[in-house]
Model the fold of this input.
Amino acid sequence: MLQQTEDHDQISEKLGKIVGKEFISNHPEELLIYSYDMTEHPPNNPDYVVMPKNVEEIQEILKLANKNKIPVVPFVTGSNIGGLTIPLKGGLIVDLKRMDRILHVNTEDMYMVIEPGVTFGHVYKCFKNDYPHFRYCYPFAPPFASVMANALLGGLNNLSLKYGCMSEVINGIEAVLPNGEVVKIGTCMCWDDQWWGRVPMPDLLGLFTSWQGMTGIVTKIALQIWPRKPIRDYKFIVSNDLVATYKLVKKLATADIMNDILLTSIETIKMVLGVPLGQAVHLEGEPRWATILDFSANTQKEYEAKADIIENLFKELKSVDPKAAYSSIDNAVKLFGEKFDAFQKMPMTIGGMLEYGGLTWVGTYMTSNPDTVVKGVHTAFELIEKYNFEKCLYTRMMKGGHYYAFRFLLRFSKEKDGETERMRQLNQELFESLFELGAFPYKTPAEFTDKILARCDKNWAKLLKTVKTAIDPNMIMNPGRWGFK
Done:
């Protein structure tokens, strides 16, 4: 971290010349905002915050940072649950929210090209107003979350059952390397106006996905979009038998008829509905699990055929779990209140999750093997109960059932003495226990990577180091991640 010296002032002056004095700050009260997020990760101040407007400004910023070996952390909204934009080594936060244009929507090849600051709220409004016959996908996250960040970090959305994590639907990118050079990946490398794919040329996209900003700053991204089918419906199931419920989810996923299948604990529903902190618990006599089914169709006959499959599979669940119940989501809204309607109107506000100052997770991708999944739930719930937090399980089948999104959202109060440290200890134990079952944390927090690197193929770790060193020899890009101290 730089000190308040003449050099520090000179850097501030040079950054001001690049972006304009109103878009550079080293004032303590403004730096504080970027020093922490909603998670349990310890805060750390940057030395500067800068807000570029275009690629050329980013090039100059990175040239300056590289020359002076100043750490750089790309940032949009800081809403990621993983401490990924906390500047572990101080330095320079590059806040990209001013770059917020939807540059192009191609309805023939079905993709959109956007800048980093485009949010899910922006995309929702754009498609609703201008492209009603197409759709993108939305996560269980606030509308102000960055679409690009979600994709680059391999996040999931409400169409991940069909398409997998969001890095799998990227057609191409433009990025600024640590030395200030601009690189294009995908068909855009040959034609500025064509972003339809990454094949059949050598695919270098992996140099930027899930690297957490360690290889450069992505300035444009092309993401696939899909036709919106005229009929869409949601069903709601409550149940008690986890094994039988998971078998239902697995069968529905592999039947290839669903947009999304969301399996949660009943505590999750309560949190979203705004039940106060500490009170979102399972009560005797209540169902234990809630499953939300999302499917669509081109015709009424197709809809009825899919509905019949769902109902018949539910009957199998009912034969094992007599108290299981099946209804439309509209009936669930009548039962639980208007806030429940958010599940079919994404992007959604998740106020019940955010209003206590602390929100964190251990989010993983893992095998969809039923024995492993059920064991993972029981293992995690025992740990959560040990630390006296709410048991918020939130899961999705991914890419037709090829793998499973398995995560535990945990809210807490940062104002209560010792609660942040208690949450930190819980998450460490959750990670270690689930990792032993083969669950890999996505958007991986820095404190988990040492254990992963100790276990992984040594030549993979060697290649990781080789690639990072070649692209970023001065190690300026988001240092402190993935073993790069």
